UniProtKB/TrEMBL annotation:
Domain Calcineurin-like phosphoesterase intervals: 53-297
One of the protein's GO biological processes: nucleotide catabolic process
GO molecular function: hydrolase activity, acting on ester bonds; metal ion binding; nucleotide binding
Keyword Hydrolase attributed: yes
Entry keyword annotation includes Secreted: no
Pfam families xrefs: 5_nucleotid_C (PF02872), Metallophos (PF00149)
SUPFAM superfamilies per record: 5'-nucleotidase (syn. UDP-sugar hydrolase), C-terminal domain, Metallo-dependent phosphatases
Lineage, top ranks: Bacteria, Bacillati, Actinomycetota, Actinomycetes, Propionibacteriales
Entry keywords, A to Z: Hydrolase, Nucleotide-binding, Signal
Span of domain 5'-Nucleotidase C-terminal: 379-567
Assigned GO CC terms: outer membrane-bounded periplasmic space
Official protein name in the record: Bifunctional metallophosphatase/5'-nucleotidase
Family: Belongs to the 5'-nucleotidase family.
């Protein structure tokens, strides 16, 4: 195989066969009359047949070790999955050892640079733009990837950080639909072609097309506006797949950071579909397989029929954070001097039954230890134990703390006539498990409360717009009759047309005032759109024309979640300050988190005007 970046492989203590068996590998036979190896010649029809196997990961999100930095313990979940590059490296290297006589590609479908304190630390605290190497580059280079698609979270820390990360990789980052606004040409390689030498017949050429998410233009607008544009996946695939075919590609594999179930993230106003992998398979002739990412779902195998050619295209999405590895087998046969696909199958391999790759662990151990020490360092104390466990059904002090710090920062940054505006703030319960103990509080405690790398903005809104916003966020609740008692699950995470799996907690925003309380009831006996009652500021009913400055995160201000008004409202504050760091800095500067200084019960759930009892 001709490679742009040679793969580095190391053996684990277990045999490749034993690791694959533990990971759930199911052997799929080659087509009849085929031999394994580099193009073994079939005897039954006088034709050569061979197989290309694609090993794939996606949505690694800064995970190298099987470690939960927020819990300061080994990662575990209800299914006892394991996570991290060190785990998938063991699976991938074992698969390569087992398939040593076959043609193998190793790909990733994006979102590597964000998601853990490990990733955050080397983007913000000790940034790689200062000269260091990113731990994900150290780890992924040892796996020996052939290529990776760009994910939307690659852009969270700015283009300079992304380009530095790109320069540290031994494989290309692909993005056919990340283009220059003026020339409309890709600013990253759109594809690469790998040539596998064959003992019999022509060499086999496999093209790898990388596609990323159009939502980057919204979600990271501050980082990419005027510098990059993100057209649709179908449109760009339709442009480059024929070009790859003209260059002699026998097979075309797409690595797409875009989900398989055509949808948008709960109302994001994108000009192109966010989750378009299935549309690429249906609408673009010449695609043979798609490694899917972005949706954080597991799809062992899905077959989609191309509307033009009738060809079945196989799609596979491995579970996020390295819990699974995709394995796509593409069987080809030589016809008149060209290789033709004759069969395809995919499966996912489980990372939790294998030992972590020691070479990857060793390469990142020092950086991991540095970050563990950082997140466990104390920054202050809490006067009381605070928990987010019930933040989805009642006004709790730990969410008041987020709103207080955000509003305080926006107020301090307002200038001119805007400096007299009363300040509000929105916050969502990102992590029900978040808590502050009474006593010493660490970076880990604060980071566990605000798990996203959002930045803070302030926008100018009217009273009518505030009410519209609250009516929109109240869609989070199911409609119920009577005051209960109800369990939390009986009233939360309502299914909507844009949230078919239930409205996520991060799309339930509450609003608080800084210098005076913003109070309101949410009547969940009423239909969506008629739930907000008695909206007042400082005890006085809010008027439709009353003006406020409202602290929001960049995800909301860019249109994330489809909340009304904030994406078009005038921006009155934007210093690109990360909210998580603002929280950490506030605790460091003030020493003590005292709920008496900022907490009050300003909203409640009611049914027909009566308080709802939630057990």
């Amino acid at each position: 195989m001709t490679l742009e970046t040679p793969a580095t492989t190391r053996r684990t203590a277990l045999s490749g066969a034993a690791i694959l068996a533990a990971a759930g590998f199911v052997a799929v036979p080659l087509p009849a009359d085929a031999h394994g190896g580099h193009g073994g010649r079939g005897h039954g029809h006088g034709r050569s047949r061979t197989r290309v196997t694609v090993l794939g990961t996606t949505d690694l999100h800064g995970n190298v070790f099987n470690w939960d930095y927020f819990k300061n313990a080994e990662f575990d979940n209800a299914d006892h999955d394991d996570i991290g590059v060190a785990k998938v490296a063991a699976v991938i290297k074992a698969a390569r050892a087992r398939l040593r006589d076959q043609s193998v590609l190793t790909l990733d479908a994006g979102d590597t640079l964000q998601g853990t304190p490990l990733a955050y630390y080397y983007a913000r605290i000790e940034p790689i733009t200062g000269g260091g190497r990113h731990p994900m580059a150290n780890a992924m280079n040892l796996v020996g990837y052939d290529a990776a698609a760009l994910g939307n979270h690659e852009f969270n820390y700015g283009i300079d950080t992304l380009r530095r990360f790109e320069s540290q990789l031994d494989f290309p980052l692909l993005g056919a639909n990340a283009v220059d606004p003026a020339t409309k040409r890709p600013v990253f390689p759109p594809y690469v072609i790998k040539t596998f030498k064959q003992r019999h017949g022509a060499n086999l050429k496999v093209g790898i097309l990388g596609l990323t998410n159009p939502g980057i233009a919204i979600w990271d607008k501050a980082n990419v506006e005027g510098r990059m544009e993100f057209p649709g996946l179908v449109e760009q695939a339709a442009k480059f797949v024929p070009e790859m075919k003209r260059r002699g590609c026998d097979l075309v594999v797409v690595s797409a950071h875009s989900g398989a179930d055509t949808s948008s993230s709960y109302g994001d106003a994108l000009p192109y579909p966010e989750n378009a992998a299935t549309l690429v398979a249906e609408q673009v002739p010449g695609v043979d397989a798609i490694l899917v990412g972005h949706a954080h779902k597991e799809i062992a195998e899905r077959r989609v029929t191309n509307a033009t050619t009738g060809q079945e295209v196989v799609l596979c999405e491995p579970l996020y954070w390295g819990m699974r590895v995709a394995m796509i087998d593409l069987d080809v046969e030589l016809h008149h001097g060209r290789w033709k696909l004759v069969g395809a199958h995919s499966q996912t391999l489980n990372s939790n039954a294998v030992p972590a790759d020691p070479a990857v662990l060793k390469a990142v151990q020092k950086q991991h230890d540095t970050v563990v020490a950082y997140v466990n360092s104390p920054v202050g104390t809490s006067a009381a134990a605070l928990s987010a466990a019930r933040a989805v059904v009642e006004d709790v002090p730990i969410i008041d703390f987020v709103n207080f710090v955000q509003a305080d920062a926006v107020k301090a940054g307002l200038t001119g006539a805007d400096a007299t505006l009363p300040v509000l703030s929105i916050a969502a319960p990102f992590n029900r498990a978040a808590s502050f103990p009474a006593g010493q509080v660490t970076v880990r405690d604060v980071a566990g409360l605000y798990i996203y790398d959002n930045t803070l903005l302030g926008v100018k809104v009217t009273g009518a717009q505030v009410k519209d916003y609250l009516e929109f966020t109240a869609r989070y609740f199911k409609q119920v009759a009577g005051p209960g008692p109800f369990a939390v699950a009986d009233v939360t995470n309502a299914v909507t047309t844009t949230a078919p799996n239930g409205t996520p907690d991060y799309n339930f925003d509450t609003i608080a005032g800084l210098d005076a309380p913003l109070t309101y009831d949410i009547d969940i006996a009423q239909p969506v759109g008629s739930r907000i009652l008695d909206l007042s500021y400082g005890g006085v009913p809010v008027t439709a024309t009353q003006e406020f400055a409202m602290a929001v995160n960049n995800y909301r201000q860019s249109g994330g979640g489809g909340f009304p008004h904030v994406s078009t409202a005038p921006v009155v504050y934007n210093r690109q300050n990360e909210i998580r760091q603002l929280l950490i800095d506030w605790v460091t500067a003030n020493g003590t988190i005292d709920p008496a200084a900022f907490a009050s019960v300003d909203w409640r759930l009611v049914s027909g005007g009566q308080p709802v009892v939630i057990t």
